[in-house]
Amino acid sequence: MRILFATFAVKTHLHPQIPIAWALRAAGHDVRVASQPDLVPDITGAGLTPVPVGEPLRLSEQMKDLDERRDEAGGADGESLEALDYLALTDMSELRPERLTYDYMHTRFAVKTMSDFQILNSERMVDDLVGFARDWKPDLVLWDTMTFAAPVAAAACGAAHARILFGLDLLARMRESYLEELAARPPGLRDDPMAEWLGWTLDRYGCEFTEDTVVGQWTIDPVPTSLRLPVDLHYVPVRYIPYNGPAVIPDWLREPPRRRRVCLTLGVSFRETMGGDRTPLAELLDAVADLDVEVVATLNARQLAELGRLPGNVRVVDFVPLAALLPSCAAIVHHGGSGTVTTALAAGVPQIIAPTEIWCNVHKAHKIQELGAGLYRRVDRFSADEFRNMLVRVLDDPAFTTHARSLRTEVTSTPAPAEITATLERLTTEYRRSGR
């Protein structure tokens, strides 16, 4: 088969696709990966064939500009930052039924569509991807859950298509509730921003909107089932295989640690895309300076310059692959990013999470604590003293390690990418449009 992967140009959304792409490639299928030109070096670095589509996304620059405009607006007229912050207006993490009113969800879908979705899927990107798909004629399109250019291209060329999740399926969960509220409204008051945008986009290529353009014909889910949100969709579970990009194992990591090792990381996407730190790193490191632990902190040059003096039990590295580091760790402290959480789950390492208010970070952190595999506090409540107490508790109570290893067993018991290739082949035959 010919299989086209697609994601917008952020490497943390590409990384979950890489092991699946290579499993299909190893099974004999022809695989290409489409994204904006920004991501081409990361695709080729993974040994796969890129298809550049659209103009460069430059998402980190867009996020920085948006933060500056938000801060200027808040200072100019004193309006609530929450009202100005697009993160609040595009937040889809609400799960409480009493809060999921039509107006609440409609606002989120409207703003998310007009801002994020249309930025990540520009008209030129969609045109380029449709043009390539009609020329190359893939049998199957596998797409990141926010890269809606991909299901449009699949519809335009008659391919089967499915999503690959990077975290919890918040969009499908809210979409399910939103469609129920929408159906209860009078026919003349059923505005659906996503259906309108995608319907208009599909119409340009002679296709009609169907709901699978939003949620896929099926969904490949690398998140362990015990963390999954209750959504009535067809999920194909797959084992999460950590991929951190090209890296070299440092010499110090080849030796067993002399004392308990703790990893502290803010994650690649937060450092590179969101552009800053929201936890007081210097205070956190000072708080554990007298503990009999080795702290491995993944900090870039800017973060390191701002810290000044470091405690003697802290080792600073710009980057080290978590998949290689975590098996030697007794705990990890992080921001709640999907790649970090699932890599820690795969390694069976207890987690201390100060989740940022991005996508499903808070929900994952809460679930990890609920399952006994770690602790979390929201960033605004994460003091240095609290951090120290949480770390001591996680290190000294073996129950956290026991529960973390139980989750690791769940991860390793899930079918690996190579084991779902036959399922993907069958579903492709089932859903691919006949008469191509």
Automatic annotation (TrEMBL):
**Entry-linked InterPro entries:** EryCIII-like_C, EryCIII-like_N, Glycosyl_450act, Glycosyltransferase_28, UDP_glucos_trans
Q: Which UniProt keywords apply?
A: Antibiotic biosynthesis, Glycosyltransferase, Transferase
Q: For the Erythromycin biosynthesis protein CIII-like N-terminal domain, which residue ranges apply?
A: 22-267
Specify the Erythromycin biosynthesis protein CIII-like C-terminal domain's residue ranges. 283-427
Q: Does the keyword Glycosyltransferase apply?
A: yes
Which N-terminal stretch is annotated as signal sequence?
none
Annotated Gene3D superfamilies: Glycogen Phosphorylase B
Q: Which PANTHER family match?
A: STEROL 3-BETA-GLUCOSYLTRANSFERASE (PTHR48050), STEROL 3-BETA-GLUCOSYLTRANSFERASE UGT80A2 (PTHR48050:SF13)
Protein name, entry field: DUF1205 domain-containing protein
Which organism is this protein's natural source? Streptomyces glomeratus
